[in-house]
Each structure stands twice: as C-alpha cells, then as structure tokens.
Amino acid sequence: MPHMFVPGPVDVDADILNAQTQPMLPHRSPEFEDLFQRATVKTQQLFFTTRRVFVFSSSGTGLQEAAVRNFASDRVLSCVNGAFGSRWYDVAVSNGLQADKLEAAWGQPVTAQMVAEKLGEHPYDIITIVHNETSTGLENPVEEIAEAVRHTSPDTLVCVDAVSSLGGTKIETDAWGLDMVLTSSQKCLALPPGLALAAVSDRAMKRAEEVLHRGWYFDLLRMEKHRLKDSTPATPAISLIYALDTQLEHILKEGLEKRYARHSAMAKRIHSWALERGFSLFAQDGFRSQTVTTLNNLLELDIQDLNRCLLESGLRIANGYGILKNETFRIAHMGETRMEDLDMLLEEIDKYIGA
Ligand code: PLP
C-alpha cells in the first residue's frame, strides 16, 4: 500500500477499511441508533466539548457552508491567509452574505490584534478562521483570536475550520469558547473521505433560530432534532459511521495527548530536516503546523519527477497548493503516520537529492 504524505486523503488502516464492510442497517432502527450514539459520544472527547457534535455525510466544505447558513443573517468576517480561508469567504459570498476579508500574507498568521481592530469597525454575526491552513502549513492562533472576539465583540460567533488539525493538534472547543469547530474525516482522523463533523455551542444553536433561510440539508436545528434521537434527517453514510466508531476506539486507545505528541515530534523532525537540507519553511516560525509542512523549494526540485521516483517505493508527497505549486511542496504528517514512516520518506528524498 502506498504511504500517503499528502494532506488528505491519508492512509487508512486495513481494519478501519474492513469495518466498513459490515452489513447495512436501516437507519431508523435501534441498532443504527446504538452505533450512532456510540460514535458521537466518543467524538466529544476529540473536540473537548460536552456539547453536541454533528456528523454529516458530506465533506468539510459542506460545514463551511453550514456555518454561514445557520449563524449569519448579514455580516461575516472571513480571516484569509491561505486557500481554505479564501474558500470560506467565497462560500459566504456565494450564499448572498455581506462578507469582509481580514487578510494576512500567506504564511503569516492572522493575529488577535488584527481581529480586535477589525471587529472595532463593524459588528459581525460570525468570524470564520481556519485553524490549520493546509495550503501554507500555518497554524493560526485561534485560542487568542477567540479571546479577542470575546472582549471586543462578544456577540460575534467564532467558527473554526479544523479540517487538517482536529485529532492531530489539541483544540479545546469549550475552554477556548469556540462556537463551531468543523473537520473532515479524511485527514487527522485517518478515515476515508465522506464524513464531516462539527461541535456547536448552545448559543450558536440559539442564533440559528433567528436565521431565516438556513437551507434544508445543513439546517442545524433539523439536525439537532434528529441527533437527540441518535439519528439524522437524511440517510447517513452508514459504512463510514462504522469506520468512525472503530477508528475513534483506536484514537482514544492511543491517547489524545500521545497522539498530539506524535504529530509534534514528526513536525519537529521534518522542520529540522528541511532546514538542514537547504530548504526553508513557508510558514512563519512560531506558527508552524503540527500536521503538514510546506517547504519552500529552494533546491528547485522537479516535484512531479520527485513524486514519480517516490512512488516507486510506494511513497507520495503533495505539490504546493494552487499558486504555490512547484515553488513549494508539502509533506503531511497526520493520521496514523508514524516517525518510522517519515524517516523512510526522508531517506528516499535524501537519495533523490543526493544528500
Ligand atoms: N479546510 C481545510 C483547511 C482543508 O485543508 C480542506 C481540504 O483540504 C478543506 C477545508 C476542504 O475540506 P473537504 O475537502 O473535506 O471539503
């Protein structure tokens, strides 16, 4: 099996793939409700929340849309310092909302101070921020930003995209006062793509009651009604929920703190390897992702050719995202990837560059 060092979809363990082959259940059955309840209770530990966690049969982008549809009637402040922050802004605009961008250069963080200044100018219904910008390998200081929002504009809901970090980096939804934290299955959770999860605060659910056109599929009030009966309004991706239930067992068995430490150790390893080999890191020091590293391609490697060579050993990395293609490349260290996998990859790249 190839080792995927791309930032999602990542490798999925064989027993998780197998968990999906269990027989189908009617989704309106006590057996399914048991499964759903078992899985969702465990997700609360992952999000560090005692509140609700929704499980959607969609990818993470669906929940970017759910955030703007459910919590904003008018103004959205979108923090943008990478491709996925930019996507969330586009999602808000395409839903007819008045969205403003709060921009930092790609590779630089959006800071609490920037947010406080902007919120001083206008009231906003929600602020959207990507915790881990997968395009740049940067982690935004979400805890500090949430605190700044609380002080400057307490009615503004804080919505966080943790698609490429939740499960690999500690994000404390309740303690940090976050109103929505969303993620996808195919990254740090090491599941196949197709599920999206979101923890949502009580006050955000209250806000949804005031929003007129929440749509249908992503209407969180409708989801909540069904969630309280351990179910979903539409047919869920049952095979993926089997996989989620099993994978959460594995994650909790590893231990969340150990899991985070494993990711940090891999981040440290790749950061020092990159600098020793003459690359530099795209994201500003102090704000580097624990789950994906974006390297400036200072050695001017042909990334496609490098990947072709790596693939002969069953390894695969990612080129730079969008406008950063070839100028940068990305190595993900998330999910079930272990230090020995990373060592193997770096050894192969060393052979390629003759180091
Ligand atoms: N947000 C971030 C930070 C991402 O990395 C991605 C995908 O790579 C997305 C959102 C979109 O997620 P999905 O592809 O699950 O819709």
Task: Name the structural class.
Answer: alpha/beta
Distance between the termini: 26 Å
Helix percentage range? 40-55%
Give Rg in angstroms: 20 Å
Low-confidence stretches: none
Q: What is the helix/strand order?
A: EHHEHEHEHEEEHEEEHHHHEEHEEH
- Could you tell me the strand content as a percent range? 15-25%
From the 3D structure, determine the CATH topology of the largest domain. Answer: Aspartate Aminotransferase, domain 2
Number of strands: 14
Shape: globular
State the domain count. 2
> What small ligands are held by the chains?
pyridoxal-5'-phosphate
Tell me about the largest β-sheet: 7 strands, mixed
List the defining traits of the structure above:
355 residues, alpha/beta, Aspartate Aminotransferase, domain 1, Aspartate Aminotransferase, domain 2, 7-stranded mixed beta sheet, 5-stranded mixed beta sheet, 12 helices, 14 strands, 42% helix, binds pyridoxal-5'-phosphate
Describe the structure.
- About 40% of the residues lie in helices and about 15% in strands.
- The protein is of the alpha/beta class.
- The chain has 2 domains: about 5-10 and about 255-355, Aspartate Aminotransferase, domain 1 (Alpha-Beta Complex), CATH 3.90.1150.10; about 15-250, Aspartate Aminotransferase, domain 2, CATH 3.40.640.
- The strands form 3 sheets. The protein has a 7-stranded mixed beta sheet, with helices on both faces. It has a 5-stranded mixed beta sheet with strand order 1-13-14-12-11, with helices on both faces. Strands 6-7 form a two-stranded antiparallel ribbon.
- Helix 2 (about 30-45) packs across helix 9 (about 240-255) and helix 5 packs parallel to helix 6 (about 140-150).
- Pyridoxal-5'-phosphate binds near residues 130 and 164.
